[in-house]
Amino acid sequence: MKVFKITKYYRAIFSGLVLPALFSCSPNQAISQQKTLLHTLNIKSTQDLHSFFKYTGQDIPIISGHRGGTTKGYPENCIATFENTLRHTPAFFEIDPRLTKDSVIVLMHDATLERTTTGTGKVSDYTWAELQKFKLKDPAGNVTQYGIPTLDEVIKWSKGKTVINLDKKDVPLVMTMKKLKEHNAAAHVMLTVHTAEQAKYYYDNISGIMFSAFVKTKKELESYEKAGVPWSSIMAYVGPDNKPENKEMYDLLHARGVMCMISAAPTYDKLPDPAARKKAYQDIFKGGADVLESDLPVEVGTAIPSLMPQKSAKSKFFVIGSSKIKS
């Protein structure tokens, strides 16, 4: 396994030279190895995770795969999809935990099954055993070979590879807290929180926990300070739009060492022209955002090499490895 300086790293990934640079092998061997190559995040502790998300002014643009990042043949909220994204670009993943009838936590964005699976009705009306009969659909509605994963499976899979960010759906805070403690997962699992009160609950109960927090306004910023949640534990979601008005929040948050995230999923990902999407992704980072959440993380990855700083202390977190992908 090798750690590259960031400019060389991204040039290698997106020029198609990763395998020749890393391996001395025949063309057939190279093709075989390409199937198993993952671009991982070298985060081993809560201290690493906090450092990864700390704003320094010389930071590497960070990609978040919204629901894992979907493409043809790959469903949202699916381990195979996470691996497909990591074969193309380093990223962390926003995912959606929901409860089954028998209180197993599975990954599913919608409360109902129709859009993303071969099932019908509410997730909460099925036991985990019953849900295992269904298959996931890709973005076009095509049925795939993949089943619905449990949160336990994803937490175990992600350790040593990436970071997962749990959105807030119908899982009670106390159950989420217990699940993270059960896996001792605070070094590679972060939590989306919509209010300072939610953050305070987790902060008081999980040592070293990191948040993706809704901080779109000065009032919300003040609420986190009043709650006593340290900024070192927060990466701030500022909204879905790249607009001049964001600068005030960027400046306030950056002054506190906080990275800021824009989500392109409901906005710029929907632009029909790939060139327009590329420009929008670049403009988001040029406008002051540090993290971009997208349904199209592979596209974002190809858009950002020119934005890489020449030097960054964060390069130690970005690793080209040869992790074996589970079948």
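(the above was protein one; protein two follows)
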Amino acid sequence: MPQEPLKGLIHSYETFGAADGPGVRFMVFLRGCPFRCRYCHNPDTWAGKGGFAATPMEVLDRAIRYREYWGEKGGITVSGGEPMLQAPFVAELFKKCHDLGVNTCIDTCAGVFSRENADIRRLLDLTDTVLLDIKHIDPVKHRELTGADLAPVLDCARYLAEIGKPVWLRHVLVPGWTDSEADLDRLAAFVRPLSNIERVDILPYHTMGVEKWRALGLPYPLEGVEPPSEESLALARSKFFHFPY
């Protein structure tokens, strides 16, 4: 019998991503995520079902229509959901991207990372830049915030440093949750020795995903939490002064 073509489970596309990797990006949002972040602005991507299936070539054919807008640095970013959950599919997509000279990025929380997983290692080899989200540096607070273990995330960060993979580190500043100066100092201390970090983005918490929670019939866990002040953002960013952002 003929082998079934490899397909990924897609949530949606965005044609002009401006903050998810170098240059202008074609964004591919996948379905399925192991995290349940209290502030998630895409809870509709959590379930590993629904959406639509597409082959790597179908995704690339759709993306390449916009190549003239990408400039020298742009390309394709796969987000989620969690790209590592569909590592064989994303790796095959990125192999085809590289055949055409297209820059590749993933945006990952790295919660399913394992050095023993050959599919994930291949995916990372084929990724030009990793956008790595570290939600919290404290293991207990990380689990309370995301429902998931911190250890794979930090091991992924170390692994990416070992293989010299360029990383943009992302950390969402949530008042009362991730804005403790002590925790920020711990995160900065963890990041400082990693020579592959190209930039650190301290992202302000926002409430733009609240309506999605309500549409899904889910209570929003951070009801009443406001975005951080400019002073709080400035303090957090000052902890990473040795990195651009």
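Reviewer note on protein two: The chain has a mean pLDDT of 95.
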